[in-house]
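re: that chain from earlier
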Amino acid sequence: MSKKDSTIIFGKKVIESLPTPEQGKRKVYSDKRTSHLFLRVTPSARTFYWQKRIRGAQKTITIGKFPSINAEQARDKADWIAAQYVQDIDVQAGVRQSHSGMTLGELWADFRSNRARGKGLISESLEYIWNRHFKHWKDKPVADISFDMARKLILAIRKTAPIHANRVQRCGKAIMNHGSKELRLKIENPFTFAQVSERGR
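^ sequence. v structure.
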């Protein structure tokens, strides 16, 4: 379950007054009024989510970002999610289905706002790597990006910049991991191949 920093009553003024954590850090708050409703605060976003352990498996459902979603809307959605599980309806399966056509550009936007900081990536080069090496795939469905495409991209970079190629591969792997682990996309990570040289191609 989420490690809570504090339990508070969610509301506009309260959420706006929460301190912004340092880069690479996050804080998690729970709502006093609604069970299993949490707010994750990072330097770039404040995100509501529902989380509960059901029959031994932890279920985590992202509700939305504040202020696009307010506290009352988050409570209503949390209650709805809980009711679905009471009826034995797997909400996560529905979430996976809704993301089935997600493009790489959409995945990148979610990754950048929620996961990029504090994950061992080189923050000053992250935007550069995306714009130079991945942006041309932004309209491709994530599921269509193959191992062969990823391998060819990394090999092409490795010809002249092997260290940079390693960074690009790490970035691609992290973005795809975010899709499979955080958004529950049913994808294989195409950047998980062993580092190779052009000579061993």
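The radius of gyration is 19 Å.
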